[in-house]
Amino acid sequence: MRDNFKERSTKLSILQKNKLYFIETWGCQMNEEDSEKLSGMLISMGYSSCDNRNDADIIIFNTCCVRENAELKVHGNLGQLKGLKKQKKDLIIAVCGCMMQQKGIPEEISKKYPFVDIIFGTHNLHKFPEYLNRVLMNDERILEIESGSDEIIEGMTIDRKSSLKAFVTIMYGCDNFCTYCVVPQVRGREKSRKSEDIINEIKNLAKEGYKEITLLGQNVNSYGKGLEEDINFPKLLRKVNEVEGIERIRYMTSHPKDFSDELIDTMKDCNKICNQLHLPVQSGSNRVLKAMNRHYTKEEYIEKINKIKSLIPDLAITTDIIVGFPGETEEDFEETLDLVKKVRYDSAFMFLYSNRKYTRADMMPNQIPDDIKHERFNRLVETVNSICAEINQEYENKIVEVLVEGVSKTDDTKLTGRTNNGKLVNFKGNKNSVGKIVKVKITKPKSFSLEGEEI
Ligand code: 5AD
Ligand code: SF4
Fold first, then answer.
1. How do residues 302-314 score in pLDDT, each as one tens digit?
2. Is the separation of the CB atoms in 117 and 143 below 8 Å?
3. Which domains does the chain have, with CATH numbers?
4. Ligand 2 centroid to residue 124 C-alpha, Å
């Protein structure tokens, strides 16, 4: 089912001139994109963004609940807003995002922080202008959460942070039920956007001058399931590859169990698909992988990696790893270290296992004590980082192609951008190169970035 969002939202909006908004976003790129949508809605209502929450007329917290840490940050930040609301009676505070889709949490937030005006979830993000109008006109307090439906709202205005690189969500939700993960609970079941809608969005982005697209989904490999058209993820990639003006295509996240030969062939055939693969492994122990419900073994994972490495030159591989899953023994953990050494990741997101309510892992015996988790985590970080530094070292004197994003944040005499395989490069170059792909000679590889000179 589709819905004409633009028509509905403009009918509902009261124009707010000279008013400022501030959005704080926690979590993944999906949340970032949702915040860009909220931004788009606020701008079409006449608001402008500001960088300091103390200046704002409306503050939105877009929350994440994948790990406990993210939730604690939300509570800490909400506590700080109490004083601000006392000083500024007209300040509107809204809280949304994944955390609000969890059982009991919206009610808890509403009770604990009575100064919060609007609480809504991920499935009713598009109704935000309506909620805001109800607060402005009737001084209502709103708590509205919806559970997932088959509906995909198309046509929402997105105020993107970059004018060069854009995220495009191709599917929502996840059907995988990894035993540690709350995402299927809070984002709902998988549903894919029609390829026509995705391609039209990308064509429009190309017209606006965007050069790089990252296709987003919790498990992009199962894109297309449930759609009437004859499509899957590799076929979609081939269509995106044809869009004139787009020069680089990235995607995340892939699930190793669904990572197919057809996808490897597509990456090989399509010149715009970057030589970068984010393939979360989570653990190197087959026992733990089974308990996580991941549906692959360490050996199968390594086999897929070796295959793709042999077919795609300069491929950078990144991953997610969880340390301290319930029942993880020292031997299990050493299997993870062994896998890391075999795969040689270009970088990895490493997480301490975090207990999440209503997940299967939460109920498992043998939860790992914090001190052991931390000790293993530190060893993993050391191993991963030393491999990353070694890999980067191999770039010395190499010439790489960089899409120039702008002036470096840390040194304004330098430009910054990324290589085709995703490495961050800070380099001396011509400021007119911003927005273009240029050749850069690497003069000084560092552990997490490369330095060089435009040639
Ligand atoms: N504890 C720690 N890390 C988690 N992730 C998901 N759920 C948890 C959890 N309960 C990590 C996984 C996933 C990434 C997005 O977050 O590694 O790939
Ligand atoms: Fe969570 Fe697993 Fe789905 Fe990723 S694939 S979102 S880790 S359930």
1. 999 999 999 998 9
2. no
3. 2-144 (3.40.50.12160), 162-274 (3.30.750.210), 287-393 (3.30.750.200), 399-454 (2.40.50.140)
4. 22
